[in-house]
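Below is a filled-in request sheet from our internal design queue. Each sheet records the structural input a requester submitted and the sequence that came back. We keep these sheets so that new team members can see what a complete request looks like end to end.

REQUESTER: design group, bay 2
PRIORITY: normal
MODE: inverse folding
CHAIN LENGTH: 452
BACKBONE (tokenized):
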């Protein structure tokens, strides 16, 4: 799933960055920006002579006046620091987009430090308020407070840096990454009525009767009697949606050995659940959906992953946290210890938008250890559950929001990752109209991709 075409100038690096101080933070962010600009990390040097002799695209990341061409970016200081302290941030507008860490130079602000601040999730290591589920509340974030949560701001900054570099180095053949789309699905509750333990089914039926929900009781009875399909069984419909467009979706399965308050899944011990997993593993990529319970017992991540591997007969290396429940740095360290290489949890479970202000995959930087890890993060910007439960959207409003995220990600040639659940794509009356707008959105995206 490589978004880039790797290129290099003959016998030389693509881009050179000078800095008198080369820290792990600087290495991390220049590797990311280099890949975004041309698919290969930029080279760093603290040698003034080497920088001056280099005739390709280059950035002077210092306040030193160096003869010759080169984009000059004055350092803010964040990338030279160690440790985590409060950062005094004042936002302003430049060329129609938000900036901070204003420092002068050719770019007007320290794009390297600002990008690092957002990608490292620096603010999530500082004291903050938790939401009702004990997660980092989105209201804490700079992106929410300064109203750029709905924008892939880091990608926009990099595109502007590309323009500035091209003005000074017109022979440089920077190459944009291509826009890509990947639908992902969380299988939290594979079936609404079927394959649940008898006491769960009996308790739910009694609750329907006592609360006067006669329609629910009748549907439950007819589904269990085989007279109606299960409302959450949308899998054939989803297959039919993917097939003509040759989409490569990714499915995350909840595998907790027992149910809980927030883990209301079909147990993996059920033959029907194992069959469902194997069917998907044969034709799609699958990953682990670490349970809510695993947030309290770290050993469960490994056992749940092992169970998914046993059933699917595949090596599992992708994950997304159930309820988007994660805490930095603990959760990501646990995922690494469990053998996870790609995580798709970077987003909010309470509002749609770009949690890290980026629409590109990036490696997690462990801010406490000051080191780049091999855990690659794939940020999502849209989840239908946020639209429905948190933002109280109608299907029409959801479609409008999806179109917005498609537009802004496409503009920066980013990766659009969406989250949907089989529950919304079935026949449950609560979600009437939702799968129609999802199909409409997918058809628009795939049509555009074929004609560009």
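RETURNED SEQUENCE:
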């Amino acid at each position: 799933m490589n978004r880039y075409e790797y290129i290099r100038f003959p016998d030389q690096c693509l881009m050179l960055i000078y800095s008198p101080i080369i820290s792990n933070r600087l290495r991390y962010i220049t590797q990311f920006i280099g890949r975004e600009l041309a698919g290969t990390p930029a080279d760093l040097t603290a040698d003034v002579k080497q920088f001056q002799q280099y005739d390709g695209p280059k950035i002077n990341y210092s306040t030193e006046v160096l003869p010759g061409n080169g984009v000059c970016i004055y350092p803010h200081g964040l990338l030279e620091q160690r440790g985590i302290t409060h950062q005094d941030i004042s936002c302003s507008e430049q060329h129609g987009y938000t900036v901070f860490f204003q420092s002068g130079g050719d770019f007007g602000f320290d794009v390297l430090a600002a990008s690092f601040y957002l990608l490292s999730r620096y603010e999530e290591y500082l004291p903050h308020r938790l939401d009702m589920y004990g997660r980092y509340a989105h209201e804490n974030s700079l992106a929410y407070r300064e109203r750029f949560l709905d924008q892939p701001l880091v990608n926009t900054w990099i595109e502007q840096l590309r323009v500035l570099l091209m003005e000074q180095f017109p022979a440089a053949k920077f190459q944009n990454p291509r826009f890509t789309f990947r639908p992902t699905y969380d299988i939290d509750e594979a079936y609404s009525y079927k394959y649940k333990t008898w006491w769960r089914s009996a308790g739910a039926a009694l609750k329907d009767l006592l609360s006067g929900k006669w329609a629910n009781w009748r549907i439950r009875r007819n589904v269990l009697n085989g007279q109606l399909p299960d409302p959450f069984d949308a899998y054939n419909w989803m297959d039919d949606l993917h097939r003509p467009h040759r989409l490569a979706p990714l499915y995350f399965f909840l595998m907790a050995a027992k149910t809980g308050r927030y883990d209301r899944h079909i147990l993996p011990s059920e033959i029907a659940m194992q069959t469902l997993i194997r069917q998907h593993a044969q034709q799609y990529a699958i990953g682990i959906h670490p349970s809510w319970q695993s947030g309290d017992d770290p050993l469960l991540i490994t056992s749940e992953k092992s169970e998914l591997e046993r059933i699917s007969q595949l090596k599992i290396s992708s994950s997304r946290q159930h309820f988007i429940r994660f805490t930095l740095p603990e959760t990501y360290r646990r995922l690494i210890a469990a053998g996870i290489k790609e995580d798709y949890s970077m987003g909010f479970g309470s509002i749609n938008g770009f949690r890290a202000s980026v629409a590109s995959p990036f490696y997690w930087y462990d801010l406490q250890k000051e080191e780049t890890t091999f855990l690659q993060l794939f940020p999502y910007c849209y989840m239908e559950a946020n639209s429905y439960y948190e933002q109280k959207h109608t299907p029409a409003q959801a479609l409008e929001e999806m179109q917005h995220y498609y537009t802004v990600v496409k503009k920066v040639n980013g990766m659009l990752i969406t989250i949907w659940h089989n529950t919304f794509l079935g026949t449950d009356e609560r979600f009437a109209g939702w799968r129609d707008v999802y199909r409409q959105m997918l058809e628009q995206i795939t049509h555009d991709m074929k004609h560009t």
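SHEET NOTES:
- The longest strand covers residues 180-187.
- The chain has two domains: 16-168, 180-192+230-450.
FILED BY: M.R.
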